[in-house]
Amino acid sequence: MRKIERDQNRFKQIVRGKIKSDLRKYITHGEMIGKTGGELVSIPLPQIQIPEFRYGQKNSGGVGQGPGDVGTPIARSGEGDEPGMAGDAPGQHLLEVELTLDELAAILGEGLALPRIQPKGRANIIEEKDKYTGIRQTGPESLRHFKRTYKKALKRQIASNTYNRSDPMVIPVREDKLYRSWNPIALPHSNAVLIYLMDVSGSMTDDQKEIVRIEAFWIDTWLRSQYDGVTTRYIVHDAVAREVDQHTFYHTRESGGTRISSAYNLANKMIDADHPPIDWNVYVLHFSDGDNWGEDNRQCISLLRDQILPKSNLFGYGQVESPYGSGEFYRELEEAFEDVPNVALSEIRNKDGIYDSIKEFLGKGR
To answer: Residue 165 sits in which domain range?
Structure first.
């Protein structure tokens, strides 16, 4: 490995360590999520700089440029006789580091000590992929196997007594050339469906929805690193539930009462119709302020116990603290499912609680 590559790898490790040490801070910043572009996320890191060459401005003054006498001070553009005073405070040095979502997921897993997920059910897609595992005597020159071709030519020349040790030149002929060949292999794909449910009743404010948005991004990032494919679906509910797209899920503003069972019924129908658990790893994550129509709690618990939990890898309920919500629903779930392994409950009091909530949801490795 060349020295510059070692230095580059060393710098990557420094950046990775810096992000991991400040992971709680980055998790709570929604601004970082807004910088997501394609498969890259841009993160500003203070106090880390890459050494680089910096060139001066062209024709900005210097030796041999412009009028002047011996002893005239040389000033940069903007200095000299122009008005203004020098500052005495240090500048803020920020380095924008781009990470792939896979790298971000790895840092998240290390920082939160998340166990790797063991997919359940059989694969729902068998995909054939070409892998270069064989050797053939014909093929394009771009696939010629140099090492094997060289060895075969060398053996031929030694056997025919044409190899000259004083002039060790090996020239392959047509019969010596060997080429890489591919064989199709079947790769099972373990797919997952992630169903987000969010309470959009009048008691859920924009601050609570921002918390849901940030946490959903990190959960998405982790699950996509664990599965070949992740399908994400969104349900919003007040007294009734409906499926929406991602933009509507995060930006809708509604009011009215709350009937959580409407969302659970719709999620259950989705699973039965499109994501049978024999083929899919099912994740259902519900976010609410815990305010529910009193008579509806019993029906919600029945739907979870009899329908959703038997079909799901994980059901997670995140209760976002709201000045208007009662929080009673969390206590109902805690009492009913205290020892159920595929249920994760989390109380999220503010943005600082997102870090611990992700750990509670994903720390079971299901």
So the answer is: 125-186
